[in-house]
Amino acid sequence: MSTTITAQMVNALRIATGAGLLDCKKALTEANGNVEEATTILRKKGAASAAKKADRATREGLIESYIHVGGKVGVLLEVNCETDFVARNDDFKTFCRDVCLQIAAASPLYVSRDQVPEADLTKEREIAVAQVQGKPPAAVQKIVEGKLEKYYSTVCLLDQPFVKVQDKTVKDILTEKITKIGENIQIRRFIRYQLGA
To answer: Which pTM does this prediction carry?
Structure first.
């Protein structure tokens, strides 16, 4: 038995996810009217869509800055996109400002995991192994992997929980923006300044 998909259901899903009306209707139809399942379907399609765009060149974008109240923390951020049209888009500019706030608040050291020096990872592994001495080897392996994941979510911007939406990472928000805007977007680099640090 199929559920009737109403315009209100489609519009509510569109507002919640930022996906297009037709995509929302298809997802609701596929999910038989279940909003949570439709949201999951749209997120999977968004991730697939973002992955397809990952190889596109990003030569435009913005350099965004943020100085925290009191002038003790500042951030310079470069975010790239494919066209200057998108770089001037309010949604893109808001995303850049939000990422600056994220960097100011959460103090990441790197944009992504591939930028973490191998020496730092080795050091973190050694510390994790030393903390779990005496446990079975299989348990040690899982605990060390868990501690490395926690380390990544501390030092890598894309792995951090997003300050405005705690149940999503910065990478999740980036993927949503790529899907919504329709272009490849890359957080290229940032510098975080802190007075006296």
So the answer is: 0.69
